[in-house]
Amino acid sequence: MLPSGGDRMKVTSASIGQLQVQPLANGRQLMVKAPLDVVAGFNVPLFKTVVELHVEVEAQAIIHVETREKDHARLVLSECSNTGGSLRVSLLHKLSFLLKCLADKVISLLTPALPKLVESELCPVLKAGFEDMRGELLNLTKVPMSLNSEHLKLDFISPVIDHSVVHLILGARLFNSEGKVTKLFNVAGDSLNLPTLNQTPFRLTVRKDVVVAIIAALIHSGKLTVLLDYVLPEVARQLRSSIKVIDETAAAQLGPTQIVKIMSQTTPMLILDQGNAKVAQLIVLEIFATDKDSRPLFTLGIEASSDIQFYVEDGLLVFSFNEIRADRIHLMNSDIGVFNPKLLNNITTKILTSILLPNENGKLRSGIPVSMVKNLGFKSISLSLTKEALVVTQASS
Fold first, then answer.
1. What is the pLDDT of residue 72?
2. Are residues 229 and 256 in contact, defined by beta-carbon separation less than 8 angstroms?
3. 107 with 148, same domain?
């Protein structure tokens, strides 16, 4: 029941919208906002009718950590009040002139009372809902997160608390060489078809396009040039033997300074499925007989693929390619005549596995900081894959 001058008003329906949680500038507190939508009516005996009002108000409160005896920390909610400028009271239906005048009088009396009602009725509900939430939760909102790339910055999109589950979405900003944002990855989580996760205190979602952007930002490095005979003499010997099958003269040209150049042509394509992830790359491989040559003996276009493993190590979410396969090989150009590139399938896979794979995995190991694992005191976490995202949650006990 709500007061309206000397009469009473009956609430016919009320709902609390989805809670929104945002970090405050001090980095040690959160602001939680709860929208309240109410339909209330009051009888007007003189006109034998019920006047219905639509009331919209938003409560806001501060979340902080309170430490009790034995260093036990818990999350508490305080400074609860209505949001400035959020109060709206309107008529639900059109009324006659006399009824509208009466309704306007009721609204003028009701409006000053609503902030007190928020404090007395809505705030206790919010406080009760936060009683069991862990104090270290505020550490989840330290943004932005650093990444080992000047072209990509990561941010948490404003976290949402839904049915006592804190849902964080990892957003990203892509920059050009001039430091200007060229692309934003900040679509909200409700656009994703994610499974319902019960009895878990938090969920971190890394959307598919953000995973691709991270991989591309970490492993992109232009050409990778290797003096094959000096770094990998056994692979150089196998390459010479493979080319000898195609052209003995070309094989004889390979000297101690033979060079392999590898470059990625496109952004990796990511394929996610329930429990599995695979990345496809288009790679160009050039073979130079010596370091003095300006033209390669031949150039191959390789459609390569790798299975991806995700894991958390030392507070980092790390990506790793388990292997690399040369699924298709195309002859792009050749100074030793046309030949079937399939003849080089084994040695091509060997070169990619020996040179490109450790190079890419070394860069991917810089990972994504996920300090919430330590901050929330989790001993272990669970990683799951859907067709649209990588999802991080607390592991089942």
1. 46
2. yes
3. no
